[in-house]
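re: ur question from the group chat, yeah i did fold both. here u go
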Amino acid sequence: MGSHRRPGFLAALTLALLAPATSAAAAPRTAPVAVQAEDADTAERLISDDVKFAENLARYRFFDLATDVLDNVKGEQSSDDVRGTIAFTRSRVLRRQSDTMGDENERIEVLGQAIDLLADWAKPGSRHSYHPRKAEALQDLGEMLGLRGTLHCRAGRSPRAEADFKAADAAYSSLRRECEDLAEHHRDNGDDDLGDEFEERAALTYYFRGKNNLDWVPCASDRELRLEQAADALVEFQWEAPSDSLPSLLAVHYEGVAREMMGETEEAITLQETVLEDCTLMFWDNLGAFSPGARLRIANLMDQTWCALARLRLKTGDTADALALVADMEAAHAAALEPEGQPYGGDGLDAILALAGELGGAGEGREQSRLIQLVAEEGRGTAAGAQAGRQLSDMLEAGGTDGSGVNSFDANALISAAQSLAEKNDHRGAAHYFLQAAAAAQGSDGDDAQRIDAWKGAAVALQRDGRELESAIALEKLLDEGLAAKNDEITEQAATKMYAAYDRRYRETGDAFDKDLRNQAAVRMQKLGIVIEIVYQDALEKFNDALRERSVQQRKPADKRNEDAYRRLFAQAEDQFSSVPETSPNYEKSLVYRARALAEAGRHAEALQQFDLMLERAKDPAFEPQTTDTRKRREVAHAQATYRKAELMLDEAVNRPDEVLSLIAGFETSFPGQEGFFEQVKYQRVAANALRGDPEAADAALDALRDLREDSSFVSLGAYRTARAYKDAYDEVADNGGTADPALLERAAELMWEHCQTAGRKVLGNYQVAGEWFARVKRHEDAETVFAAAEATFSGQPNVPESVLDQARIGLGEALNAQHEFGTASRLWRDLHARNARDPVVLRGAARCYGGWLEREEDGSLREIGGSGEYNEATSLWSELKKGSDFSAKYHEIWWEAKFGAVYSLYRQGQKDAAQQEIARKVLNNQRTITPGYDKDTMDSLEEEHRFEPYFHLMFRYLDRNLP
């Protein structure tokens, strides 16, 4: 089918669909533009962080924030390239936003806004003709036009759909010409790698045009022509692509769809079976080797193919085989990457939803509703999920697809439909289906969890719909389920909320009937031994509201946070907790919550005093619990007060680590029933010892935490704090004029690297310091490992600027230099130098790699390090470094190293080339005349600026002795 035309083609094509476009793929070509390149580069550098941040926000569905960031980017006064970058990013934000919308007319409107931002890019003479991301923009434009065409087609607006598909085809034609021109340009400039890459992107346009024609078919005026052009383009692409790449398999899949639409059923089956077999072998069976994003793309292809085959089996009358294929798909998802399974992707969900319709038409109503439910659950927050939720609601309203009424749906399907409506604030509809779910779960197939979820959801939906009495009745049913399941937490919560609902109803109406219902609820609670705790529950809800608001504010950029918004809520919660009477069984818990609320409100001194009230109460015999239940509650409150007070004293604003260690001493023995706190308390010992400057004790405490639970998230935090403590201890000795033990820094590096590997949120700066610390203690292999991991982890992330990531690459290059791995290092330094031509650290690292250096051994002898042998380039770099040093750097170490390095490179080159040897001798003779020999008295009397001169004088003498 396909063949390798040249090395690297498989990787380029596969990555084009498995990962976002890389910066290399968008590299600019040289061309006259309206502004000077230096000005454009400066503007790009100033806005790049904000633009990348906005695109990343959109990826995580923070669309309003992304738009706010872009609105604040000052690009109006900048070059066309800068304004183009902002417009391109804004279009991507809008496209991502459209992908989450359930209303197709709203999607069309938002896609239109995104298309308008890019429409000019495809026109001849566009001001964005030389924009570095033009190829990406043209591809995005084609895809969005095709998507809008599909939506118009579904709505029956064929003329508009055809216009969009035609415009998409034109955009792909422009993309092909653009990529071919760029391929030729880069080859003419000696960059064959980029030339190959753009030629491969040009080949991909066959795939894009084929898929576009296929989507065009349902509304095309000439259906057969579109099918033929789709099939021809997809086959043409397969000739361009190797048969063992994901893009090629996608093309085969869509060719199979085209053959099916042409009526060539057997050929279509053969093609889809080929895709299923090959994709399973090459990708699905190795799913764990790919990133989560790549796994979703692989799953998309597999799901579409499973569904296509099932659809074909239905056409040939083999319903059993079609259902077996669906079962295979679900089983494969459940088994992949156990225990969580592999999620379904967007295109796959669309295919499953379409297959559900086919199954309904074939009389498989139950299977249809089950698959719609699957899409509603797996596609929550996507257009496919919203569409499935609507279909499920419509089917439920109609009483089922097989005429057997609502009971043809299981409780999970009804709960999914209800949750879909609740997300759209349709609380009345949500309540209806939650109640239906509760009824369905009463049967033999129902279970406790379904009934609890159904009644809990119904109670919330009814209350939000203003139906307090019905909400109270639903909560009473939830109470019954909690008792049946022997779930104390559900029972107590349901009982308390039930009473509150009846109480609100009575306060609204003042009716004697409602008062009687409230009193009956109170009697029932008393019989169950549940004390009415309205004040406590209201305070707890206020506290939880404050926690949610704090989470919202902390996710905002620092300059847009409003800490007062949640601190006021915490203060209100503290006030409400203060009203809990001492006779309440939750009184001691309320003391702890009051202290926590005060701490969160920033009132630390009051919070510490409040914690002490609980701790003193626990010591007082007068308050000794008299029953098993009160003793259990006491232990929980006492343990929480101890742990939470320790947590506050570890806060930077309080910083009392010695008292923390006293407070939590023997915690595990004192509170044997509170194992849930043991991890946190052991971490607190790590943090307290680190804060008090005792890294060895912190390290021992960290071992105790590992012994309890090696995979605890607190191990990573403990490793970080202990690493910083070791580094502080190392610096303190050095700052006081002593000789610090390298073992302190070595242990700091080990622990920081452990933190980097185990942290849930990766931070590039931590990788950087771990690598630098390893380098300083000459563990260069470990430094290489750390910096290489940083490159692999953060490369391509939109919120990590290339200039910042280059610092890790510099560390990697220096680690490779130290290990004399010059072949690998040379390629890295070349790439770094291309982006950082004036950076003295890059110049030095590249020059040492290319030309080598003299290395002093432990016995004082000198050893020649040869470098990669690119001595002419090394000489040039050393000269550039020396010339680029500002005047204040003259005679300092880097200036002397550059001066010596240039001669050393000539010396090494002279061993191969006599002419270079003669030049080296002349330069060395000149140096000898201006650098006198030194005796001890002379060296002792040198001025500060000349203190490095004797060290390099020894090196010059070495060359003088060895150079003919």
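okk and heres the other one u asked abt
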Amino acid sequence: MSLPQFMKHSMPASKSIRQIFSYPIGMIFCRAGLLLICLFSYPSIHALEGNVVLPDRTVPIARTNIEELWPILTLAERKILAPYLIESAADTKDEKKRKTLLDALRHENDGTLRAYFIVAGALFNSDNPRDRANSISAGIAGSSDIQYRSVLEFHLALEKSAGGEYLSPAELMKVCNLPQQDSSCRFVKMTAETDRVSRLPVLTTAALKNILQIGRPFLGRNPVRPPFFKEMGKELPMKIFAIGLPLEAAILSERMTQGETGALAIEIRSMLPFFLAAAGDFSSASQFVSSSSALPVLKIHAQVDWLTLAGKYTDAIRIITDGGPDRFITPAVEVLKDSWTDFPYSREGMRLRLAMLLYLAGDVRKAAQALELLTDMSGQTATGEPAKYFARLRLAQILLRENPSLAHKIAEDVMYISQEKGWEVLEYNSTVIDGWANYFSGNYFVSIVDFTKAQGILSGASSDHATEYSRQLGMLASMNKIRPGAIQMDLISRLNALLQQKPYNQAMFTIQEWMPPGADPDFFLKEAIVNLRRNNWGALNLLLEYNRSQESLFKPGKNPGGLRGFLMSVQWSKEIANFSYINALFPGSRGILPSARLKARDFLPQTASVTVRPELLKYTDLYIFSFSLHSEKIIYVAFPTVIAVPIRRQRRLFYNYVRTMGVAFLKLSAESTASAASSCGFFSSEAGRCAASQADFDALRKEIRAKFAPGGLIRIHYNPEFDIDYQSLIFPDWQVKPQAVFFYSPSTVNHPFLSMEEKIYRGSCFTLASGKIPQTVENFENSFGLETSAPRGVWIWPDTFDPGRTSQGSFRMVYLRNFLCGDERIRLWDMERFSSPSAPGLVVFRSRKSELELDRAFSRHFAEKGSAILEVDASFDEEISARFFTDLFGRPGPLTGAAILASYRSLLPGLRNTRLIMPHITP
């Protein structure tokens, strides 16, 4: 069936749900039930293999022959294994294993094992939690054995909870005194702490870090699986989600239920797609939702929506077209509102959605054809405005750049009709689209009138439908054309705030925000820079603020969770809740807590902490910042200058020479950017490599050369995505070029952890010659935990890490890459969540030229903790390293940033392929 035919007629559902979901969706997925494990690369001791690791043996629980194993176990091993064996036999309903286990426990004299005999009998003899509770309660009566009572009281509490009796985690914690089962009580402690934190009016960073640290055994690379995991923590994933940790909620849900098929496991696992979507991993969420027990029509809607948010438009189109829009509409969804189009779910609404997906997928012609066929569609929005006019307006939206005059005619017609009928939302959107049509037609004054008029159209409840990003961006772009000299700082600040408070997603901003083609954040930044060309300080700080916000915002599927991904998690959790079918699809779902929303504001960049002011910079130095806008680059340079200020005294004119800092910027085209990156990289060594790019820097060089003081430093804002040799480009003919020092954060505040009272040289896998410096070699994998000694002094980082692709060929997330140190390893994911707040004063590592994404995440982690970072290559040999470290450790006082910089400047000034990255502009 051709697209026009499809748009006119409902297509019968020709394929089963199973067949539809069997299509490849953007990537090769692991088998259902193992997807999360494959995505996060978690080798698990208990969750995956079903093994319990004892000091002298590893026991595969599911395949254990109890008759052969039990007699050779020590008493301590029996205490550890008993609950695992009971849990397995209870879940699998293996009568032979149950009988054998009961016989083994029956003959034990130890109080703990006698208690487990009572627990096993209760679980094996009844599926009713109340009957089980009665049996366990009867077993407690009259006993004074503390270990015996502890086991029974704990399992009595679990059965009461399973029977519907509310038992707070704090109450469960009171009875958690299980011999040989420390992991169980630690997990209960995690549930109790999460419950407490969820009740706090103000969520704190310390509280979040504490929960993550308590949960480390269950979240880390080698997770522990306590017996009766799911029974203890069935409510924990939702509570973890509610405080802003949806990825951790997904991980716990999967690990609790791995390999389980019971009703409780199915209930817990059913929430996985909800948690994954809230974390921004829409591809995984769309795959997992197919195994949900919810109505098929709701699952299909979720799949299409999440594939759309993932940017997999072709896959979303395929799901719609394979069965036609009829299967999307049933009585269960007709009463719900489509959050994309704002009118009730209908066949026409799904066709309109399909048209916009075609447009997002890049097929403007087919999208226009589809919208032409929908200009007579029936139906109306939730506020009673005809859907057919929205279809016309969508046609105008996608034609804005290619045919602005036609877009203007369509939008104007809709605007007049909506004004006559009093349809506020339709009038507002048509006025904004008409404003953009006039902008692209060059009628800038008329476009300003449109954008201004739109501001006063919506009233009351209709105000919720304001698309302020589109309207205000159109106003800024138009003002730049008609009043190029007027600085619109308030307008720019409002737009920047809008982009920070909501995750940017092309589909959301195009469909929900009525964004015109190409008006993405880079479009805004370019317009802002044009507007601020007479205020370069303002433009620089705008880009710094936006750049800082991107450190906490991740593309779909890239969110690492924890505190690093907290802002992204909270934002997506709020957005996912707006889909009207969520409560029906996930009956147990809750919203994100107000305390988490408030806390998320702390993760937005504060202008006061980002702003770079001239009086904070060192007069003798040069400061370079580079920013990426699509394939172009913008380079800002702050440099010393002297201004003669005329002062008239007693009719005589004097000149007061004031030292200040000038700022200039250079815009590199895509071609110039590619040329500089390929031929003039910071770590390149070919003679004359920068000659082809020097002409691009001529104007900038002339502006700053005469004002730069010899002996000053070039301080470069660290950006591994654009790592060029500014020394050769700005000072090509100087025999002794200024030395480059990099910095990560634009802040000038000294970090409290950048001063180490103790000077220690720590090695790991490889060591560099250190002269007479005392050296301590430590366990690499455990050196950064809160529960171990914090790394201090200088740390030599291992130079090997695992491949960027899995054995199946898929890419590993950067935060899940392992740094390798013999048999030890550590992931950035674990370092972010579980590491001590203190950090080494200096981290030395070998250059990773082909690992830009890993490099940035690694450097950011240490820089934000206050560590200086020294990047070296093979030229940093034994002789040089010995001199450097001897000089550094020979300086009086603590190991400070100033001391590190001084040793670097005195000993490594001419060494190529060596880079010092300070955490801030000033040490």
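fwiw on the second one: The first helix runs from residue 3 to 8. The chain is about 50% helix and 10% strand. idk if thats what u expected
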